[in-house]
Amino acid sequence: MGKIYIESLSGRVFSCRLCGTHLASNVELISKSFHSRQGKAYLFNEVVNISEGPKEERLMTTGLHEVADIHCKNCMQLCGWRYVMAHEDNQKYKEGKYILERSKMMDLYEGNFASASEASTILAGSDMDEACS
Ligand SMILES: [Zn+2]
Fold it and tell me: Residue range 84-91: average pLDDT?
């Protein structure tokens, strides 16, 4: 039985809503303009303390992608997915990046996400994904 090593982040941190494990830092946040079946979702450069499921092809509103679900390493909650490969050239920028679903996280800095800056980000955003079509 191996002990689970949990990495700790500093600064503004997004954490697992169920167990509080740190999942991503605000400095790795790329976009808040994504959507999943569960609602809002955020795109990150890098996340920590996750375990990755098997890769699979998934059809999203922006085309066919190869993705892998990611789970909180501590409580195993499904919290988003990683883009393994994008088939459309204009979606290649997402390869290797991570989606964390807003509903699966808490924001330790603000306590909630209902800020004015977030609302303007969503209005400006054009890149919407569905977890499943
Ligand atoms: Zn967790």
Answer: 95
- Distances in whole angstroms, Cα of residue 31 to Cα of each of 27, 49, 74, 101, 111: 11, 20, 25, 12, 19
104 C-alpha to ligand 1 centroid (Å): 9
Q: Give the per-residue pLDDT at 2.
A: 65
| Structure confidence at residue 4 (pLDDT) | 81
Pairwise CA distance, residues 47 & 36, whole Å: 18
Q: 6 C-alpha vs ligand 1 centroid, how far in Å?
A: 11
What is the distance in A from the centroid of ligand 1 to the CA of 101? Answer: 13
* Mean pLDDT across 20-37: 94
Which domains, ranges and CATH numbers included, belong to the chain?
Answer: 13-124 (2.170.150.20)
Q: Is 122 helix (H, G, I), strand (E, B) or coil?
A: helix
* 87 CA from centroid of ligand 1 (Å): 31
CA angle 51, 106, 83 (to 5 degrees): 40
Cα 124 to middle of ligand 1, angstroms: 31
